[in-house]
Amino acid sequence: DRQLAALESTEKVFVDKISGKTTKRPALTEMLDFIREGDVVVVTELDRLGRDSQDLTRIMNLIQSKAATLEVLSLPSTAGIQDDNLRRLITNLMLEIYKYQAESERQRIRERQSQGIEIAKKKGRYSGRKPMFEENDKRLQHAFDLHKKGLSDKEIEEVTGINRETFRRYRHKYRLARTDSRDKK
What we know:
By secondary structure, the chain is mainly α. 54% of the residues lie in helices and 4% in strands. The protein is built from eight helices and two strands; from the N terminus they run H-H-E-H-H-E-H-H-H-H.
């Protein structure tokens, strides 16, 4: 409601109920198809458009390729700048700074989390996530058998539904080796 109130003066509003983590959002697609030369795409905050730096760059480039402008209400306004090229340049510069800042913050959060986990492990307070499978799990054993028969991790994933990265971790955990030394993804 807060975002819709901030956008009430816009000509057309596109609303998604899906997380900004993905670009596979119907209203985002509809908006990108709808915009025309001279349009101003207005979002309340940059993360409403997308959360990933690469996705944001792709979306911004698409908006620019249609000769439209992006305005982010939570950023300083460039509305008073008459020259379209200068307004785009300043907006892009601000967006790049904010994207860099957001990416750096995500990296710092991951580093702090990793440091916290290490400290908790040393104190014996962290055991990690509960394993998905025990060694005697029938599905895991079936996957191990398929692996021994020469199926690739991708084929095993298709047959058992066990993600190939997860399966690879379990193979290493239980030191499962293939006799013909093939190790396909």
